[in-house]
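Colleagues,

For the teaching module next term, I've prepared a clean inverse folding example: a structure given as tokens, and then the sequence designed for it. I'd like students to try predicting residues themselves before seeing the answer, so please don't circulate the second half yet.
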């Protein structure tokens, strides 16, 4: 059909419609301007510090107002300008950096294949635990959620349901998909079912003694190949695994709140963590659509290590009597959306 159509145009049996000059899909100028105004507001909201989405809208407007050739000229000129901007260089840097996260010397360069993780257990159904569980079931991992009593367990399950329902409300998920995700979740109050788990993520409060006790229990109840991960944001992993003989499979899996939304996942390895465990967790991170970064076991790991001086500087200015809102505005304006 396409061949016949092309020949018909060539032999002048069909009109040659130049798509550049088609205007049948364009709204009247007044309406078009309203649409562009709305698009600009959306772009500012979604990417407050980026110039190029607004430049794209300007280019489209030029094409509508002054005709297609003027639009193309503006596009060519605007592109040249953006190409040499700092933002462009930085976005290229981010693009390649995100891809470099999957190459970890001493782990991904040893020819190891990730092992299959068929069941995940999560300890603690609080804000973090329920968020991690949500991320897991959304990517089809069966999850066993453990809590200390019935009341906490039900509260954790309700949090997960609320996370999923919010997706349904936003149209990101069908009712059918909601039911399927929820069917992957089961609850537990003891460790009996932990013998069939390949990965455990502990997400309880930041209490060293409690975590040490949990990891000693996990070593007893989980199979010998099971990865023992902690969602701690600040505690030394060697301290957490001190009372175990399983240091080679203890690893940090530090998610960010809300865990089912935020893309970053810090994989924290100690000098004992096996390369196989790192490779396995990188694979899980990718499957649950996170950007996993492998970091060392040091105070604050990577993110909080950067966040500490950032907060300390802000507090120093407050001590010197500076207005809190001014500091917040300066941070936000600089490009830190949290202020």
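(Answer key — instructors only)
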């Amino acid at each position: 059909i396409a061949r016949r159509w092309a020949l018909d145009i060539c032999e002048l049996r069909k009109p040659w419609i130049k798509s550049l000059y088609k205007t049948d899909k364009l709204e009247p100028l007044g309406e078009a301007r309203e649409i562009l105004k709305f698009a600009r507001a959306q772009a500012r909201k979604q990417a407050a510090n980026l110039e190029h989405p607004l430049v794209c809208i300007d280019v489209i407007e030029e094409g509508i107002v002054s005709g297609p050739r003027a639009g193309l000229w503006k596009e060519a000129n605007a592109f040249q300008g953006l190409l040499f901007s700092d933002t462009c260089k930085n976005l290229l840097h981010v693009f390649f950096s995100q891809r470099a996260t999957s190459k970890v010397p001493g782990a991904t360069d040893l020819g190891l294949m990730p092992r299959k993780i068929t069941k995940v257990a999560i300890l603690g159904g609080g804000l973090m635990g329920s968020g991690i569980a949500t991320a897991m079931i959304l990517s089809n991992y069966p999850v066993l959620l453990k809590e200390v009593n019935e009341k906490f367990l039900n509260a954790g399950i309700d949090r997960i349901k609320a996370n999923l329902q919010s997706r349904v409300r936003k149209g990101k998920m069908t009712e059918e998909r909601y039911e399927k995700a929820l069917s992957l979740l089961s609850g537990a109050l003891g460790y009996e079912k932990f013998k069939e788990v390949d990965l455990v993520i502990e997400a309880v409060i930041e209490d060293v003694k409690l975590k040490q006790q949990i990891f000693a229990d996990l070593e007893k109840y989980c199979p010998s190949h099971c990865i023992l991960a902690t969602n701690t944001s600040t505690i030394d992993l060697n301290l957490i695994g001190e009372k175990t003989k399983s240091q080679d499979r203890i690893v940090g899996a530090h998610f960010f709140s809300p865990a089912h939304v935020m893309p970053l996942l810090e994989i924290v390895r100690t000098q004992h963590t096996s390369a196989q465990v790192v490779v396995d967790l990188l694979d899980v991170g990718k499957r649950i659509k996170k950007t996993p970064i492998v970091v060392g076991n040091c105070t604050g790991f990577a993110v909080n290590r950067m966040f500490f001086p950032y907060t300390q500087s802000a507090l120093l200015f407050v001590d010197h009597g500076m207005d809190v809102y001014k500091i917040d505005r300066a941070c936000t304006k600089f490009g830190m959306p949290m202020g």
